[in-house]
Structures are given as C-alpha cells and as structure tokens.
Model the fold of this input.
Amino acid sequence: MPEIKVTPLGAGQDVGRSCILVSIGGKNIMLDCGMHMGYNDDRRFPDFSYITQNGRLTEFLDCVIISHFHLDHCGALPYMSEMVGYDGPIYMTHPTKAICPILLEDFRKITVDKKGETNFFTSQMIKDCMKKVIPLNLHQTVQVDDELEIKAYYAGHVLGAAMVHIKVGSESVVYTGDYNMTPDRHLGAAWIDKCRPDILISESTYATTIRDSKRCRERDFLKKVHESIERGGKVLIPVFALGRAQELCILLETFWERMNLKAPIYFSTGLTEKANHYYKLFITWTNQKIRKTFVQRNMFEFKHIKAFDRSYADNPGPMVVFATPGMLHAGQSLQIFKKWAGNEKNMVIMPGYCVQGTIGHKILNGQRKLEMEGRATVRKLSFTFTLTFFLLCNLDVKLQVEYMSFSAHADAKGIMQLIRMAEPRNMLLVHGEAVKMEFLKGKIEQEFSINCYMPANGETTTVTTNPSVPVDISLNLLKREMALGGPLPDPKKPRTMHGTLIMKENSLKLVSSEQALKELGLNEHQLRFTCRVQLQDPHSDPDTLHRIYTHLKSVLKGYTIQHLPDGTVMVESIVIKVSSSAEDPNTKVLLLSWSYQVTFLRC
Amino acid sequence: MKLYCLSGHPTLPCNVLKFKSTTIMLDCGLDTTSVLNFLPLPLVHSPRLSKLPGWVSKDGTINLEKELKECAGRVFVDSQPEFCLPERELLDLSTIDVILISNYHCMMALPYITEHTGFTGTVYATEPTLQIGRLLMEELVNFMERVPKAQSATCWKNKEIQRMLPGPLKDAVEVWTWKRCYSMQEVNSALSKVQLVGYSQKVELFGAVQISPLSSGYSLGSSNWIIQSHHEKVSYVSGSSLLTTHPQPMDQSSLKNSDVLILTGLTQMPTANPDGMLGEFCSNLAMTIRAGGNVLVPCYSSGVIYDLLECLYQFIESANLGTTPFYFISPVANSSLEFSQIFAEWLCHNKQTKVYLPEPPFPHAELIQTNKLKHYPSIHGDFSSEFRQPCVVFTGHPSLRFGDVVHFMELWGKSSLNTIIFTEPDFSYLDALAPYQPLAMKCVYCPIDTRLNFHQVSKLLKEVQPLHVVCPEQYTQPPLSQSHRSDLMLELQPPPMPYRRCSVLNLPFRRRYERVYILPELANSLVPSEIKPGTSVATVSAVLHSKDNKHTLQSVPKPPPAPPTKKRKRVIEEPPVVLAPKPLLSGAVPLEAFLATLQKHGISEVKVEETADGHILHLQAEDTLIQLEEDGTHIVCDNNEPLRTTLRDLVLRFLQKL
Done:
C-alpha cells in the first residue's frame, strides 16, 4: 500500500521555525524552513540532522517550498541551503521572493552586528540562496519533475502568502502555511478548490479561538487608540514591517482623516517606504477593493503617517508609533517599550501572536515585573581574560497592555471552513499549541469523521493511501459498454464488463480479449469439446434433427436457436449434429460440440 | 473533431473547436478594418469634412449624397463606423461552452458573442488580458460615444446599390452583418463572464478535456492554449513572439507532441524587422522635432507603446530631446500606464528583477515623474492649456477614423513640418490617410509587429513536431504583392490544412483510447500473468461507472445469496445470469509434456497418431480422443463429465488465458 509520511522538524505542536518534511510517492519535500523567535541557541533552527547526519541535503530533497516571508517560515533558509547544503529548487511566490531576502538581511544584521554572534549566514549566502529560488504564480501548475507537481493558492495571510497543493500521481497533500479566511483591509481571503487531498496540513495558531467580527475588533482598536491619545498618552504598536502594519496603517489613516486628528503617527525603520512600494507593485495580491481603485488612489500612500526618529520617543504629548519587531523581543519596539513602560497613561497594543520566551508573550500573560538584560559592560581583567557582565535590571510595567488579534490567521471557524472547501481524507495540524490542537482535533474528527493527526517535532505520521489505478481503455470497448448500458448504470442490475488488461513497460491498456490477442501478436487456441449421445428414434436423420430443433425451441426460450441448412442445429454457439449408427438405423448418435468459452447454464 | 472558422482575418481569429463533446471558441477577434470605409469622426466641427461632396453615380441614377461622401477620388460612408463581426450563422453560438482568449487584441468582439447569442458559458483569460482588454474596449466605446452621430447609413448596403459603388466599398464583404460599437454596459456584462487563469494552470472542462494557457511572449498576459484529454492534444497558437520585449518569454516546449496545432496570428509585416523599424521611428521623430515640427504617433493604448516609451527613454538624452514634451492622450492613458507596472508575474526576467528592488518595471514611470511624459484623458480640459509645440503625441485610434488622433490630423495635416509615424501594423497607412488627402504632412511607415515571422514559425514547428497544422489560407501562399517570395508562406510536410471564413474542417483525429480508473479493491484482485518478457496480462471483469465524463471500474458486487426455493426455477423465467465469460486462449499444447501430465494423472494407455496438422491421442481405456493441433485442441469424450473436466484443466495448464 502506498504511504504518505509527514514529519515536522519544527512547528510540531509548537509555533515557530516551521519546517515540515513530506514523503509522497517516492518524493521528499520540505515545506517551509523557518526559525524560532523564542530561542537564541541551536533550537533556533530546525534540526536538519534528522534528514541526514553527514553531508548535503540535495540528494534527500526533491524541492523546498516556502509559504510566505515571515521569518518563522523562511528564517533558516540560507542556513539550510548554504551552510548545511542544498542545491535543489526552492519555490516561493514573487512577492515572497522579493521581500524574503530583505527580512533575512535584517535578521542577520540584528543577530550578527548587534548581538555579535558568529557562525551565522552572511549577506552573500542570502544572495546565493535566493538564486536557487524559482518563482511560483498562483494557480500555475509547476512540474518539479515528471511526477511531482505543485500548485499555489492564495492564502491571504500576508502579501504573497500561499497555500500549496503537492501531487504525485493520484496522491496529494495540501500545506496551508499561515492563512486567513476573512478578507481584511488590504488582503483577500484564502481560497482553495475541492482538490480532495489525502492530507491537509493546516496551521492552528488560533485553534480554539472564534474571533468576533473584524469590524468590532477594528472599532475596539480605534477606540483604545483614541482614548489614549485624548488623555495625552503615547501608544506603541509593535508590528512586523510588512503585513499587519499596512492594514493597521490604512485603518488609522482613514480614522485620522475622518476624525480630523492631529496627534502624529510614526512608523519606525526605513523599511516602511520600501514596504509600501512592494504593496504598490504587487497590488494584484491585495484585495478586490484596493485593486479596483489603485489607479485613482493608491491606498499605500499615507498622508498622516510619517517616518520615526529615535529622538521622537522623548517628545512630549501624545503620539502613535508603529515599531518593529512585533513580539518585543529586540530592536526599536523593545527600546521604546522600555522608555514608555513606566507611565500608566501610555499603552502598548499587541496586534499579533507572541511566541513563548518573548517580552510580548510575558506581558500578555500579565507579567508586570520584567527582568531585562541591560547594557553589557565589558571589563578587562588582564591581557587574557575579559569578563562580560550583564546588568539585570527590573522593569515595572505600568502602561496599559492591550491585545488585539489582528494577526491574520484562520480561527477555528476558518479552519473548519477550509476543510469543507478542500475535503481532505486526513487532517494534520501544525503551527499551534498542543492543548489547543487537541481540542480542535476532537472537533474535526467529530464533525468530518476523518482522522486528525498532530505530530510533535521529529515524530512521523504515516497515512496509507489507496489510489485508483489509471488505465487506458480502448474506446471501442468503452463505447460498446456505454451503448449497452447507457450513461447511467442501473444500480439494481450491475452489468459486468470484460476485458484484458495488458501491462507493458509503464503502460496499462484495457482492451477486449480479441483485441488483446491481436495486439500481442498471438494466435487464438481453440479448445473444443465433443460429446456423443445415443438415443433411439425411428425417424430419418433430418427428421430427428428437426424434432430436436422444435423441442429445444419450446424449452429454451430466450436463446438463439438456429436450424442451419448444412444439417446442424445451433443453440447459441453449441453445434448439434445427428447421424445414425451403421448397424442400427434407429439408434441415432447426437454429436454435441462446443468451445471452451461457452458458459453452461444450469437448467 | 471539427473546427468552425468564423473569421477570415488571420491575426484577429475566431474559431470554434468541437472536441469530445465540448464546444470551445478560440479567440473572439473583431475585424476593425471595416471602419476604413467610413469618414473620420472629428472631435470638433471640421469644415473640411462637412463640405465634402456627396456621391452620385455617373449616370445619375443612384443618388446617395446623404450617405456617401467623396474625398480625393475615394468614397466614404458618412455614418457611425461599423465593425465586421465573426460569422454568426455557421453554428448555433448559444451552444458554446467556453471561450478562450489569447491576448487583449483578440477579444474585442466578445460583447457581440456573449450578449446577443444566448451564450451561457465561461470566458477564460489571464488577468492582464482581462484588465487591458477592458481598457481597450472602454476606450473604443468612449471614442464612439463622445461624438454621437445620429445618422446610420444603410441604403448603400443594398446589394444592387453596393454593386454599382466604386471600390473598395464595392468589394466590402458581409456588409449587412456589420455592427456599430457596443455600449459600456455590454462590455461590463461580457467581462463579468471572464474567469481568470494563470500560465500553466490546468482547468478541467466537464471532466472531458483539460485546457491550459501558456505564455506566448507577445503582450502582457498573452497566451497560447493547450486543449487536451489523456490521449489527444490540440495546441492553439495565436499572436506569439520570440523577440525580447517586455512580456514573459514564449513557452515553446509545452507545445510538443500535439496531434493538431492551430496556427494563427503571425506577423502582418513579414518583411519589416521590428528592430530596424524602431530605429527608423526614433530617427524620424528626432529629425522632425529638430526642424520644429510635431510628431503624431497613432497607436493603441497598450502594447507596443510601452516599448516605444522605453526606447525613447534611452533615446531622449542622447538625441538632445530632453525638453520636448511627450503627450499620451487617451481616456485610458493613465490606467494603461499604471496597470503596466503591476503585472510583475507576467513580465520578462529583467523587469521582474526590477520589481524585487522594488522599482517600477517600466521606465515610463520615471518619464512621468520627471514631467517628460504627460498623459491626458482627451484634448479637452487640461491638455488644451498645457500643450506646447513642437511635441510628440501618442494617441488613438490607429485607423485614424475616431479618437483624438482625428483632431491632430486636421490640426497638423496642412504643414509639411509635421510628421505622422505609423507604428501599428493593423491598418494600411494609405487607406488610413485617404479621407485626409490632400495632405502636406510627412508620412513615415514603421510598422512594428513582433509576432512570429515565417522563418521563426518553421523553426518552431520543426521543434515541436505537430502531426497536423491548421492555419488561415493566407499563410499557405505568398502575399499577393510579393507573389515570388516563396519564403513568405508555410511549407510543411504534410501540407497545412488551410481555412477561410465559414470553413468547417474535419480534423484528422482518431481517438482510440480513453482514461478509466480501476478502484483499488478491483486492482488488488487482478491476477497478472506474464505472456512474454516484460508484458503481462490480466483478465478484468468489472462494473463500469461513468459520471461527469470520468470512468471508473469497480469489482462486480457479489450477488445476494439466492433465497432457498423448493421449486426448481425454470431458466427461461430468469434474466441471463451474470457469469464471468471464459477467457480466450492462446499458445499450443506440447505433445510430450502433455503425455507426461496425462501419465501423472493415471492415464497411461495413450495411442498417438500423427496427422497433417498435429496429433490425435487415443485414450483407449477411457474411449476418448484428443486432437492436438497448433491452434486448437479438440476433446471428443462421451458422457463422462469428470473426465472431461480433468482433461480440460490439464490442457488449460499449457495455455495462456486472455
């Protein structure tokens, strides 16, 4: 029995460093190659030694597919391809291909330049890695090789996010990456056709949440920002440069315009303008409304939102600042957070999911006292020893902490909706927390009566598939059959079709037995039987034959019975002849002759 | 399989393919050359045009002075221009299941087909084709509706009268079917039936055939189409280009192994080299500007204009034209320029790389930013106040019969300082200029047609090796004006099947196989036996299920156990019982081995007699004869069923079953 195997190297009962191995029809595919935001050690990257202990990955993988540009889905790519070693094809959509190297470079800078880590991938490695990328278009069927084909669907999570359908023969797997089933202010909703995959591998970040309507969440968000501004507070919104940031910018921009607000809105990092430019050029990936109106008014040209400078953080008066990164684990957002945390008038709004181990995660869990790594001081003790002291300082979090789920993941309802769309035979959950997955798994198994798996990292799920065998049937045979039964077979009277299946090299042909003989260049071998039956009858031979004929005619209704001029009677294809015995003319000898193929009917 | 040819224009095709119970329209081209028979539609009152004399036949018997006007020896219809539609009588167009569009130039007749024939199907096109096609239709409607003409001339169409008219009106065909332009409402309704597809996307039609667009390299989103089932493949090649311009390169390899290749949309200018024309375009433009004249470029709002602007972007500085204003005037000029920048996926590699930076893929963004290129919806409004001469104006329509270009012809036609440069190949420039004669303005003809030429297409066909080629009849002979140029036609073996308007071709196709799926349960129950090395056979008895043109074979369900009946049922009352028929046999029974087998089964008294064709075995104890021959075995055995069965099984051991 053919099998499909799925092994998460990351994102198995966890969020972060998504990396899932799939073996299907003899092909090995890596889905995503992400890093973990919560770790700074080896656990940051997926454990590629699972694939092979020594050497490069090229011969073990047929292709790598990246679903979108978030670092927990592509952050380990240069490490995998350039440091571990992989030269095969890497597939991603055009926007992902455009944006991914920028985020990778950013990530590299923070890690190497600011934190001083060595043994990390270099800028050149990012470039070399991107050279191996083949861009994917939506709905295009890409033939990776003669047997393996992949097709991308719109996922609506961030610009260029895709779900991917992987097919070998009649077996298939769908991997969702991260997706969103409700259209937002800048992206459309995920969509897939009824492709009935053997396994649907879905993210489950919000496995247990059913979020209220988008409008309510937006209203809440605006209300909170507005209240804070009114009382002269500062609002920090940690975001990733691309994605949710643009949606929230559109939201605030229109609100500011409508309410005629004057408080400044800033966006940190120089990436913003560039980011907005990507949105302009890849406008076909945004939602219907933005696409329709882009000629008249480009939604990504903001009037109220200005670039942020570090010194602005100490300015008096209210302001709203979007700062990266989104989980408060490093960089500018963390710096501003430290500055503003002590004042209860201020507010931080976390618009997305925070991975365990990040400051974002801690404050969302209600932690009010944080231990922070302060500035490191290096003291030279002698020529050979240097000691690094990390000053641990306590930070009291007084500002308001708000959580608004704006990150574009499907919630439980959305996941169920996708299952209904694709109609998978099996379900496999990744990219979520084990407890929540467990709950969703129960719900899925109950509602759809399909198996649902949730393997941990390094654990393999095996699903047995039962594919039909494609065969070429001779049109004559098919037409004969269809003409007999009409297009709709009668379920009460199944009619059997007979043919010969010829298996030659890789082809399977179903033809009538006669044609099979001809095609194979074989002669038919006739097997006949003859049986003599003696009976007493005073009539002449022809009369006897005629009497037999009339008798059979009356007994065997519904059969073809012929009296042929050459002195034989045929019942279907059974031949009956009469001769008289030489000694006694009243003793007739009946010769019954039939071929092997005649099926006797018991009477 | 049949092909119905509804258009005679080789680059604006409209064919219908009937293939495996589906009816597929390939392109929906609108022949606009008919408008050359009409007077131009001026944007502002033109005293010259209104003073043209009406036409009266020489003998004075036919007076059509209201409908027909004479200008420089040619007769023009004074009415709203009309288009020559695809043939609508050849087959019932409401039976069309789908329409496949290959590029935005080949979809202009769509509203006529989808809105007025009872069409209920789906139209397939790529996103750029849809968006830019919409712009071109919008522009066309706008050109017409901006200058409404109450008069609709019909008298001249009368067969008797048309016969008496001077050429080319006399020779115009199908004039009764000519139609006025559609409305915006019809355009919107037609385009709402479009389903977007991406290159290499596989779309199933009714489970019977699969269609897939391929990049054709001619324009943004332009495609060729593959129409195939599991065993047959038709390629439809329309407007394709191998030149490196802005679109994604042509996908040639996917056209391989076609049974039939339908070839349309070759270059209309087989002798003009596009690169050379581009050079000539630039040098004429510079010359005119330097001499203080204006340059008028009648063009479509999308397509070659992007390449012209890119070429000028590099040329402007070197030719010292930095201060010359370039104007692009069209109701859709802005949209066309904006749209061109957002289709990164559909562009050539170089342009894609620019988008990754991120930079706009076309340099006209920079021309606009630096104010070198300005675009306006029409000559009215801002343009009239900002307009400076000498300048270069790109505007439509290339037929010179409607659109803003008519105004510039009236404005600049009288001065020999000005130049009109024709770049679009769709219209004969002499015919286009006819209603403006006499003309002092210089005319330069640099038609740029990037579509395949005969040399390229023969090379392509050699590569992809289709079994049969179907093409417009125009491609099977050299052009009339160059009848000695045998290199300007298709020479193939076997010769291509030519078509013309209203042809119905039977495509040479024999379908022999169809795909069925054997369900796993049945597949597992099959017992293959090897007939010769590498070839095995298995007999299959199964129930066929056909649904949505998909066939599956299932195991024969086991009949429910017959209820025990005391009475013996008579056979005649029962329907024929379903029993697997015995397979056909093949091979021969070897004598020695057979005798040995008989011996093993206790039959040892065998007398063997040789005959002409084999042997007769006499089983003396059993009083049974077995006749063994090369291609047959005959067992003559009297009323002894067990023996017969044994012998049968022994014989079968030596034979193959099919």
User: Anything to note?
Assistant: The first helix of chain B runs from residue 47 to 50.
